[in-house]
């Protein structure tokens, strides 16, 4: 017997990230090749005509797993009885935009969506909002933010070693989705000719790993915006798919991925009232921070710097909410 359909919401569904995302969800790349889906597409009223075109395209794809597509501009419809929610509906970052400006534009959106999740969605809903500093108002314990795009970027280590990206594991993104994020390969492994080697030993270039590698990952988003005059879409959609699939099916034994999660109870000295990107393992759709990794002085400084930025952005967001 085929499984019952699950209800999956995508916000900002008429936008560029969603356009790259919806086909992968509907054809089974995220929730499995045997899992029927009801897609709920939420956007603002002016975008409903565009959303009608997206619905027609999904219908024309004739995807066997797609049972129904529900376009709407009403949160009570969009968030009702959800199994999964992918919140990409927000103002994208533009060239020259300060993060404070981005926060101010988006914090009210996420406050509304957080309230709607609490009121209308299933309590077991799995939620993937945008980066950690924009998750104000979302109370669900199943919330995680997506730093997979940065993890994928970090696997430039693979290119440096002359192997494919699937030969690299346990790269960590610590902290914020910003220019302070810290891509850490001290615990990463690279499979070279069938043998696992520590990333530092495989790369054999400490100056690059502590210099250009980190800055390239930190500034990648700005570089894409400068080149495209738009924020990341295709790669962002791929990262969202990877992120939600890992939540749904879990991580491999002995491996961890990076996710922005609530920092409560962490063993790494990070303030507990933040959403912060940690190494996590996932089992039975439940994430757990991978504790106990040794942290050297270089990493400690980087981790604390990105935590300080998140504290500042959290306080800024709360100020905006109180106005």
TrEMBL record:
Source domain of life: Eukaryota
Binding positions for NAD(+) per the UniProt entry: 43, 106
InterPro entries, A to Z: L-lactate/malate_DH (IPR001557), Lactate/malate_DH_C (IPR022383), Lactate/malate_DH_N (IPR001236), Lactate_DH/Glyco_Ohase_4_C (IPR015955), Malate_DH_NAD-dep_euk (IPR011274), Malate_DH_type2 (IPR010945), NAD(P)-bd_dom_sf (IPR036291)
Domain Lactate/malate dehydrogenase N-terminal residue range list: 7-133
GO molecular function, one term: L-malate dehydrogenase (NAD+) activity
Domain named Lactate/malate dehydrogenase C-terminal: residues: 155-320
This protein's record includes keyword Acyltransferase: no
Key words of the record: NAD, Oxidoreductase
One Pfam assignment: Ldh_1_C
The protein's enzyme class: oxidoreductase
A GO BP annotation: malate metabolic process
Transmembrane regions listed in the UniProt entry: none
SUPFAM superfamilies: LDH C-terminal domain-like (SSF56327), NAD(P)-binding Rossmann-fold domains (SSF51735)
CDD domains: MDH_cytoplasmic_cytosolic (cd01336)
Keyword DNA repair appears in the UniProt entry: no
Active site per database record: 177 (proton acceptor)
EC numbers on record: 1.1.1.37
Catalytic activity of the protein: (S)-2-hydroxyglutarate + NAD(+) = 2-oxoglutarate + NADH + H(+)
Similarity-based family: Belongs to the LDH/MDH superfamily. MDH type 2 family.
Known role: Catalyzes the reduction of aromatic alpha-keto acids in the presence of NADH. Plays essential roles in the malate-aspartate shuttle and the tricarboxylic acid cycle, important in mitochondrial NADH supply for oxidative phosphorylation. Catalyzes the reduction of 2-oxoglutarate to 2-hydroxyglutarate, leading to elevated reactive oxygen species (ROS).
Name assigned to this protein: Malate dehydrogenase, cytoplasmic
